[in-house]
Design goal:
Blueprint lengths: L12 H32 L9 H17 L4 H25 L1
Helix pairs in contact: 1-3, 2-3
């Protein structure tokens, strides 16, 4: 499979769409790896009450927002996306913890 063009070199919508599709595939692979870490956390934590950690959640979202600021992309949608990602991760970790 041919590597998609970087955004600044795209001149057609098919080129843009190929790039977006490639990024989406990479994001899904990274999210799958992130959920692997949630499985590990569920295995390692000794108590169910340790799964939800609001301090850590706030830290993760703040880190994402800071990265967005450094990259000059909109921070509000990144904060919302990361909130949803972290909440989905917590729900997944609860499910894995309860399976033990």
């Amino acid at each position: 499979m041919e590597r998609p063009l970087d955004p600044e070199y795209c001149t057609t919508m098919p080129e843009v769409r190929a790039g977006v599709d490639a990024v989406d595939a990479a994001l899904i692979a990274l999210i799958a790896k992130r959920f692997g870490y949630m499985r590990a956390a569920a295995r390692i934590k000794s108590e169910r009450g340790q799964v939800r950690d609001e301090t850590r959640k706030a830290e993760v979202i703040a880190n994402a927002v800071a990265a967005a600021e450094r990259l000059a992309i909109p921070t509000a949608p990144i904060a919302a996306l990361w909130n949803d990602l972290v909440e989905a991760s917590i729900a997944y970790e609860f499910e894995r913890f309860d399976e033990r």
